[in-house]
């Protein structure tokens, strides 16, 4: 069964550093998403991406965040200057249309 | 702002018992999702409910959707230990705005099933 692949599985970074989280969505999917889950809390929507542009973004997705689909297969989330409160599990998801989506296994980001 | 509320948030039950998890949401939507999450793992899609009155069943789990009441239920029949996990409902933001965008999740129901 096709999977959404995320790398790295765990990233530790110092406060103020830039991080890039990588995702390879399922190849025939059209909609791509980033979500985050702070430990023990609910999953929060960050941003959706369709037709090579941001479709929707939440209040969490401020100027520190950006997304790219640089080469037609990868989908990246960049955090420019990490803060302690950015520590969370970040999930990428994709779906072919407005139906069931597939989540990746996540990247655990720890900001120290 | 779309709000999704689940209850209970924590449930401990014995094997063999039945129980229902409730998911209420605040604005019009006709797409509701249920996910399972094991500790430290990703989200596994369980059900997608796409219309009023939709009912889906898989194994000991059955989900239903009442769009008029803005309520979905996840019913567990004759629970077994392997069903211990956190269950999330999520509503499609886009369906309240006419597009297919991100999901708004409930806080999750942490389910423990004891032998």
Task: Return the structural class of chain B.
Answer: mainly beta
Oligomeric nature of the chains: heterodimer
By DSSP, the count of extended strands of chain B is: 11
Give the CA-based shape of chain B.
globular
Which superfamily, in CATH terms, is the homologous superfamily of chain A?
Immunoglobulins
Count of all domains of chain A: 1
Q: How would a crystallographer describe the biggest sheet of chain A?
A: 7 strands, mixed
Q: Please, could you describe this protein's structure?
A:
In chain A, 0% of the residues lie in helices and 51% in strands. With 112 residues, chain A is an all-beta fold. Chain A has one domain: Immunoglobulins (Immunoglobulin-like, Sandwich). In chain A, strands 2, 4, 5, 6, 9, 10 and 11 form a seven-stranded mixed beta sheet that branches. In chain A, strands 1-3-8-7 form a four-stranded antiparallel beta sheet, with no helix packed on it. In chain A, a hairpin with a 5-residue loop joins β4 and β5. Chain A is globular and about 35 Å long. Chain A starts with a strand and ends with a strand. With 115 residues, chain B is mostly beta strands. Chain B has a single domain, classed as Immunoglobulin-like, CATH 2.60.40.10. In chain B, the strands form two sheets. In chain B, strands 2, 4, 5, 9, 10 and 11 form a six-stranded mixed beta sheet that branches. Chain B has a five-stranded antiparallel beta sheet with strand order 1-3-8-7-6, with no helix packed on it. The radius of gyration of chain B is 14 Å and the shape is globular. The mean pLDDT of chain B is 90. Classes of the chains: A mainly beta (112), B mainly beta (115). At the A-B interface, β4, β5 and β10 of A face β5, β9 and β10 of B.
